Amino acid sequence: MISMLYLMNARGDIVISRQYRDDVSQATTDSFRLKVLGAKEGGTSAPIRSIDSSTFVYCRHLNMYFVAVTRSNVNPSLVLEFLYQKIRVLQAYLGETFTEDKIRNNFTLLYELFDETMDFGYPQNTSIDVLKLYINLGKQKARVVEDQASLTSQITGAIDWRREGIRHKRNEVYIDVLESVNLLLSQTGGILRQEVTGSVMMNTKLTGMPECKFGLNDKLSVEKDKNSSNAGKSGVSIDDCTFHRCVSLGRFDADRTITFIPPDGEFELMKYRVTENINLPFRVIAAIQEDGQTRVSINVKLSATFSEKLFASSVVLKIPVPENTARCKIKTTMGRAKYSPEDSAILFKLKRFQGQSESMLSADVTLMPTVNKTAWSRPPIGLDFSVPMFTASGVHVRFLKVFDKSGYTTNRWVRYITKSGDSYNIRI
Amino acid sequence: MSTQARGLQNFISDLRNAKSKTDEANRVAKELANIRAKFTNSQSLSSYQKKKYVWKLVYIFMLGYDVNFGHAEVVSLVGSPKYSEKQVGYVAMSLLLKAGDSMMNLVINSIRNDLVGSYDDAATSLALVSIANVSGIELMNALHVEVQRVLVSPNATPAVRKKAALCLLRLIRQLPDSIASKEFAEHIANLLQDRHLGVLTSTMSLLIGMASKHEMEYQTMIPYAIHILSSLVLKRACGADYLYYRTPSPWLQIKLLRFLQYYPNLMSSGQTYVPTLKQILARILNDTDVSDSINKSNADHAILFEAISTIVVFGDNGDVDLQNAAMRLLGKFISVREPNIRYLGLMTMSRLATLHNASNKEQIKTYQSTVVISLKDADISVRRRALDLLFVMCDGSNAESIVDELITYLVAADAGIREQMVLKIAVLAEKYALSKKWYVDTILKLISISGDQVSDSIWHRVIVIVTNNPEGDLQQYVAQTMFDVCSSKTAHPKAVAVGSYVLGEFGFLIAEEAGKSGEVQFKVLQQHWAVVDSATQGIMLTAFAKMSNLYAELQPIIAPIFLKLKTSVDIELQQRSNEYRILAGLGPDVMEDILREMPAFDTEKVSTLEIALEQEHTETHDKNIFSKKKQENGEGASPTRMVGNHAANPPPGPPPALEPEPDLLGGFDDEISVVVPPAAPPAQKAAVGISEDQIPGMRSSFAKLCSSAQGVLFQNAYVQVGLKSEYRGSQGRLQLFVGNMSGTPFNNLKIHIPEVPYLRTAISDESGPTGALTSAGTLDANQQKRLMIMAEAIAPYADVPEVKISFETDTETHTYPLRLPIVTTKFTELLTVNKEAFMGRWTQLAGKESQEIVATGVPGSPERMQKVASLLTSLNFGRCPEVDNATSVSGCGTYKTGAKDPSGKNISVGMLVRIEANADKFRVTARTLHPTVSASVKTIFCAALKEI
Predict the structure, then answer these.
(1) What is the pTM of this model?
(2) Which part of the chain is the MHD domain (chain A) (predicted)?
(3) What is the value of ipTM here, to two decimals?
C-alpha cells in the first residue's frame, strides 16, 4: 500500500509530506527529484516510475506534483484515482486553483486531511461532502452538525455520501450532458478515428432521501421499453459507461435502469463513450498546394451540418503553414483570419456560426528560402468549437423520476453541449 | 550599440521578461516571422535594418533556436566595405554558418579579400578570427596558404601576426598536414626573432602545437627558445607592457619551457646552449620566493612548476644537482598550508620520484611523514595526489611502513578515495611482500576494513598466489585464517567468498585439528549463506561439492542443498547444483577426478590489478608530454609497472575452479559450430548435420588447410568436401569440390556463402557465375560438383567466412555449415628482413600484441622446432633466423588487402610473429599495427601448433 504521500513543487522542494509506513525514508524523495523532475520528464512520460525498488506514482496539479511512494505491488489506477480525488478535496477546501502558498498557510488543515483520507496507506473516506462535516477549515465554513452521534453512523453506513435530514425550499435538479468529440480524418476524407466521450453532470437540490431513476436513449434500454411506449425509435449504442458510486450497479446490470440516491449538490453521475453513428457538427474541405519552394496556396471550406436553429460559438480553425512562412495574403467570406507565427498556422476565427451555413477561406502564402531544405511535414488542420444544445452522439435524457416519501414535485432542467475534444483533426 | 538598435534592445528585454519557456518561444517565433517578412525583399532594407535583423538572428540562434535563413544577408554584410557592417557579418558568420554549408563558398572569397587584399588591420583580424572559429575543412583548404602568407608577411603588424599565428594553430590542429614542416621551420625561426613579446607568445603557441606532432622538424628552434628564455629569466629584458607583477611575461616563459619538454635528450646533447639552460633552470629554482601579492606568487610558481616538469622530462639524462634542488624545493612546498601549492608539489614530486636517481630516492623518503599528513587533508584531490606519491615512493625498504600507514588511514578514509587506496595497497602488498603470509594478512585486513571496495580481481589474485605456492605451510595458514575469519557471524561477504574458496580447496589441511573438522568448516560457511550474494553462493556450492567429496559424513547434509537449489531462480546456482548433484551419481572415481585440487595458475601474467591502475592513469590531454611519453615508451617507462614474473593481459575471470564440468567444445566453440538444424522440414525428413564426434577431426583438417593449398575440408558417409586454393596478394581463387558419396542423388543441393564485410567474394559453377553467393542444383550419386570462389580481402578480420552446404535425400535433409580456411595468413606475402629491422619493428609495436599460450602435451625437441619453422613458412611468413635461439622461431609477413587508402594504394599491414617453446608449451606472440590482425594471426598459429 502507499507508504508516503508528498507534494513537491516544480523546483523539487517538498511542500508537505506525510509518511504512512516506515518502509521508505525521506531520502527516497531525493531520487524522485533527481530522476523525474531533474530529468525534466514530468508530464511527458509515464506517471509511474520505479526507482530502486520504490515505485513513484504521481500526477500534476498546476506546478505541484502529488507523489505517492510505495514499495508494494499496488493497483496503480487505485493510487492515481486517490491522488486525483485528493486534488479535488483540496480544491474544495482551498479553492479551484490552490497554490503552494495556500498550502503553506493551511498546514494544519492539510495534515488533518492527509490523516483523514488515508490510514496506514489505505485510502479512507475521500468524499468532500462527508469530510466537510467534521473538517471545517479553509473554504468549507463550519456547518452546524445537528447530531454529532449521527456522523459516525453516516460515515460507516451504507449511504455515506448523503446525510439524513437535508431540506431545500425548492426541489430542483439540473442535468448537464457534456460531450467532446475526437476525430481524425484522412486526406481523402475517410474516418480514421472518431469518438465521443460524454459525461452527465448533476446538481441536485432535493429534500430528504429521494430515490431517483434516470433514463437515456441508450439502445439497450430503449429496446427493452419498445413494447411499451417508445416503439419505433432507435437508441444510441453506448460503448461503455461508468457511474458515480451512488448508482446501484445491481439494478443496472439486471434491467439497465439507473437508480440512485443522489449526493447533495454537484456530482458527475456517469461517463460514457460512443464510437458509432456520430453526427459530426462540421465538415472541412481543404485544398492546400505547394507551388515550388516559395509558395503555398490554401483553400478551405468550412460548413456546419447541424440544424439551422442551433449555432456554434467560438469556432477556431487552425490551418498549418510551413515554418518559414514570410507573408500570408488571406481572404475570407465570414469571420477573421490571421497568420500566427507562434503556432505556425493561420487561425481562422468565427465567433458565431449558424447551423447549415458555410464559410470559405483562401490564402496565398509566401515562403522564405532556407539553407537546409526540409520537406514540410503537413500537419493536420485542427478545429475547436462548442455547439450548445447539440449532442454529437445523439444521446438525450429520456426521463428523470424522483421518488420521495413526502412526494414533493421536482423541477428538472436539462442542458446539452458538444465541444471539440483534444484532437479534432483533418489531415491534409 | 544602444544608439544603433532600439528594436534589438526591446526584443532582448522582451525575451528576458518572458515568464516561461513557451512565452519566449512564442516571442521568438513572432520575431522570426517578422524578419522573414522583411527579408523577402532585402533590397529595400537599409544597412541599419540589415544589421539590426542579423543581430536579432544571432541572438535567437544563441538562445538555441534553429535559424535556417538569412544567410544571404550575412554574406552580403561580410562583403560590405563598412567596418560596422563587416563586423556584424563576421560575428553572424562564425555563429550561423557551419562547415559544409553551401553558403560557405560564397563567403570564402570575401574572406580572402579581407585577408590579403585589404590594408586594413581590423578587417584582416576579423577574417583571421573567423577562420579560426568556423574552421571547416573547405574553408581551411581554401585559405590556409593565405593565412601562412599573412603570418610571414614582412608588412604585417604585430596584432595581425599574433592573430595569424593563433589562427594557423587552429588550422593545423584540424589539418595537420597542411604545413610542410621543414620549410615552415625557417619562417618560425624568423618569427622567433621578433622583438614583440606578444608575437613571440602566439608563435610559441603555434610552435608547441606543431612540435607536439613532429618534434624532430622543429629541433632547430631550441637555440632560439633558449635565447628568449635567457633574456627573460637571466637578463629580465621585458617591456613594461608584458611585466606581470614584476615577472617578465610568465606565459611566454611557461610556453618556452613546455616546448623544451618535447626534447628530453636535450641535456645530454652536448650543445653549446646546455650550460645556459642549466643556468636558467637553476635561476628559476633559486630565485622564486613567496611574495605578498598572490598574483605574483601564482605566476612565479607556475613558472617554477613548469621548470621542475622540464627537469623531470630531462629525466636521467638531466642534471642531478638540478633534480636535487627541485626535490628540496618540493619538500618545502608539500609542507605549506596552501592547498594548491601542496597539490602541485605532491603531483610534481611523484613525477620526480620516478626518475632513477639514487640520492633522489633517498631524499624523497625523508618526506614520507609529511606526505602522510597530506593524506589526511580535507581536500580530496590533495589526498589523491598524496596517495599517488606514497605509491611511487614505496620500495622494498619502506613498503611495510607505508602499507601499514595506508591501512590505518583507510579506516578513516571516505568513499571517494577508498577504492583507489584499496587497489594501491593491494598492488604494493603484492609487489613488496616480505612474506606471502604478510601479503595474505594485508589483503584480509583490507577486506575487513573496506570490503565493498575490494574488487574481485584483488581477491582472485590472493587465491592465485595461495594456489601457486604449495611449498611451506602457506595454504594451511590461509585455511586456518579464513576459518577464523568466517567463524565470525559478521564476516564481510567478500571474506566469505575467499573463505569458501580456500576452505573448499585447502580445508582438508586443517581438518585434522580439533574443532575444525569438515563438518564444522561446512557449518562455518553455511551460516553466511543467506547474507551473501549469488556469486558467492556459487563459490560456496563448489566448496560444498568439494567438501562432500572429502568428508563422507557431509554427503547426506549437502545433497539436499543441491536438490533444493535445483530450481533456484538464479540460473548459475541452478546449473551448479544440478551439475554437482549429477556428479555425485557418477561414482567416486569421476568425482575424485573432477573435484581434485586446482592445478597451479598460469603465472606468466601481469597482475590484473596493475592493469586497473594503468587505466586510471590514462590522461586525455593530447599535448601533455607525460602522457605522450607513456604512450611512446610503452612498457618500460611506466612507473607503476611491476618488474617481475607475476604479470599480464587477459582479464582473469573467476577462478577456474568454478567450472568443473569439462567443456565439450573446449575453448573453441566459435571455431566449429554444431548446428542442430531448425525443426524438421515439412516432409518430415530426418535432419542430419555434423555429429559431435567429428568436430576434433574437422578442427584438425581446418588447421591443416590453413597452412596448405589443398585438402579435404569435411567428410562423412554422405558427402565429401574438398578444397584447392591459390592466393596472390590480396586475392585468392578457391575451388570447392562437393562429392556425393551416399549412393543416392542429392536433391535441392544448395551451397551458400554468406556475405561478410571483410571479404569481397564471388562464386561461379560450371554454368557460369551465380548471381547471389549461392549455387543450387542436384547432384547424382558418386558425382562431384565443382565451384569456383574468388575472394579478396578488404579489411582485417578475426573470424573466417562460412560455407553452408545443404541438400535432401529421400529420407533426410542435411545441413553442413563449414568454416572456409580463408584466413588472414592466406593473404599474406612472405617478407624477409634482417635482425635490426625485425627488432626495430618488434619494439615499435610493443603495445599492440596478442599473445596466447598453447599446451600441446608433446615434449619439446629440435625436430619439433623444425616443424614449427616450416609451419611458419607454410603460413607465408618469412623467417628471421638471426633473432632466434634454439627454442624460438620468429618471422614476418605482410597482410595484403584490396582496400585503397586515400592516396589510392592498396592497404597492407605488416605482421611479426614469434613462437617460443617451453617444455610442451608454446607461447605465440603476434604484433601488428592492427589489433584484429594480431588476434587473428595469433589464433591461426595457435590452432596450427596444436596439430604439430
Answers:
(1) 0.58
(2) 170-427
(3) 0.74
